[in-house]
Each structure stands twice: as structure tokens, then as C-alpha cells.
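note to self — DONT lose this again. spent like an hour looking for the file last time. sequence + predicted structure for the chain T wanted, 432 res
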Amino acid sequence: MNIGIPAARNPAGECPARAASRIAADFDPFGADYQLDPAGALSEARACEPVFYSPRLDYWVVTRYQDVRSVFRDTRSFSASIALDPITPLAEPARECLRGYGFAAGPVLVNEDEPLHMRRRRRLAPPLAAGRVARLEDRIRALVARYVERFAARGHADLVDDLLWEVPAIVGLLVMGLPDEDIERARHYAIKMGLFTWGRPTAEHQVEIADQVGRWWRLSGELVARLKRDGGEGWLPHAIAVHREQPDLVNDNHLQNMMMSGLVAAHETTTNATAGAMKNLLSDPASWRELCADPALVPGAVEESLRYSSSVLCWRRRAVTDVVVGGVPIPAGGRLLLMIGSANHDERVFPDPGRFDIRRPNARRHLAFGIGAHACIGAPLARLEMRVILEELARRLPGLRLVPGQDFAYLPNASFHGPRHVRVEWDTSPAG
């Protein structure tokens, strides 16, 4: 479908002839180019066709910062209801598998609309407010220090396997109000949920993933029942208290969906974001040396890394009525793919966006956590975890360097994005 938008001016020159029709036809969020360089894969779209229809996905793709930001903020024209729908439609065998587990996906904060959304958010948000989360800093720092100590004398590590997967999982479980007795199972289900929502599995693979999602759904119900019985502290116990006070606002289905999606959101995205931050910093040794010499640079480095390599590359909305985005008419019911990773590299907002700059003055304007009424409720926790992890690694292992020649592999996933491994080495001698 050729929308016929006049070509925008590209800093590198004019848009090539017929770029618009080719951009729409070629867009593939599961392809190697996009996985390795999401923002670069959409650079021509930002310049030539910032809003286009993808026949491959049946989505309108929005690539520029201002357009993405405006859609996020406009809760009247755009519904969040499709935010957690599988981007690849499920085949009937997968649906049948889910029905066998009694799977009943319902709205949670990220995929519900007003006025219900803000009513629930106000009641459920207090445990994740910045002031409450800040009280966890000492516990998170002690946890990170303990994990780093396990490999500090070894001289090499995979930061993902040895640190960045388990620590956010443990913190996520702590915040949710659950024991950390089964980290590996949480890791397994988080991967499956990401592929379920944002992957392109074959029909056969869909059944396998659906089986794992069904198991996670069933376990989530068991965990909610246990918390109802035993009590505790954390986000889910707080939600259970709200449920008992206002069962019409937070019912049992909502609690089970909170349990199922909340741990994945608290865990995988923070793991990916922190792994990306360390990859970015160690790929630019001068920035890593600066940060080690001056820990005050860490918060800025966190924001710049969230901008430079967003762990959530895109999110979704549905047009409630006929609407215009970036000069392009979108019909009522049209589904929009909001390309956060592209928006965070928009030259109109971030000069020289392909340069990783831990001193960038406006890095915090990134959209990695969304914006507006649906801005990520867990952003304070993610920022705290990333800051503490970077501070502890810089303090304890300033000589870190990337193992040469490694392949930073990414899951074939349109949105959740982060290197599966970050292999590092350092000198263990006193001089190192």
C-alpha cells in the first residue's frame, strides 16, 4: 500500500525515488537487520515515510518521536486494548491448548482504557512509587555485590548468565511479594511470554509456547491463592487488599493476570535494558573509564542507554475513530505499531542519535517507558536497579572489557530486545 507521503528531507540527502512503497514492503521486525540495529533499520522510514502501512503485519507503523509521543498521550483517540495481543495471530491448535488450561487473558494496567485504567492505577500504584522503591536500594545493592563477588576472582563472566538475569528476577519476585525459590522457572516462562506476545513462531511452535503460557497461567493462579491465604508484603499482597475492599475494581481474574504479566515486565525488560547498557558502555571504553572515575555519571548513562538501545522497541494502540497521525489518515479500528526504538533515534529530538553519549543533556526525554497515562509503572524500580548494577560493576571491576569477536545474539522478537549474552574479561592481578 503506497500512502504517497511527500518525501521528507534526510540529513544525508534526498529520499530516493519510490522509497515510500519499498519501505512498507520491506519492513520486517523479525529480520536480521532489525534485530541487530532496530533504529538503523527504520532510519529511511523516519526520513521518507514516517507513518506507513505494513501489509506483512496489518499494522500502521509510526517511526518519529513526536508522532509516537502524541499517540501515547491521546487516550481518547487510541485504545491500549491490543497492547498484549500476540503480534502473530494464534492458530486454532494453540488456542485449543490455551483453552485447556482455562487461560483467560483479561485487562491489566497496560492494556485497559479510561476511565477504568486510571481508577485501577491510582489504587495499585503506591507500592511502585519512587519513594517506596527507593527503600529497596540497600537490599538490591547487597544482592548485586553478592553476585559480583561470586565471579570477581575468575577473570571472565557472562554478565547476563552470571548476574543480569537472576538479580532482576529476584528483585521482581521481592517486589511482587513472592519467594525467590524458583528463579530458573521464572526465566523460562519470561522467555516464552515474550515470544508468545512479540514473536513469529510457526504453527507447531505456537502450540509448544501456548502450553508453557498455559502452565504459567495455572501457576499464577496458585501463587495468588497462596498469597491470599498466607499474606505478605509487596505489589500483589497490596492488590489483594484492594481486591477485598473493592472486588468490582480488582477481581480474581485481574489478580491472576497481574501475577502472570507483572513478573515478566519487572524481570525481562530490566535484564535486557541493563545488558544493553553494559554492552554500550564497554563498546565505548572511554565512556566506561569516565563512568568508573566519576560515579555521578551513572544516572545519565542509564538514561542514555535506555534511549540508545531501548529494551522495549515498540508498543501498540488501536485507533478508536478515524484519525490522522503524522499527516496520514488512519481508519477507525486500524492497529498502530509505535516504534519506540526508532523514536529514540529521531534526529529532530536527539542530535547525532547514533552516538552513545553518557553526557547527553536531553537523554531522559526518551520514550523507553512510554509517556502519559500509561507510562510504565515500574520505571522507578528499573532505573534504581540499573543504576545500582552499573555502580557496583564500576566500583568492583573497573577493568572490564568485552571479549573480542563475540556475537550478540537477540531473540527473534519484535519488541523485547537485549543481548542474550555479554561476555567480559578483566585482569585479576593486583595491577589489573
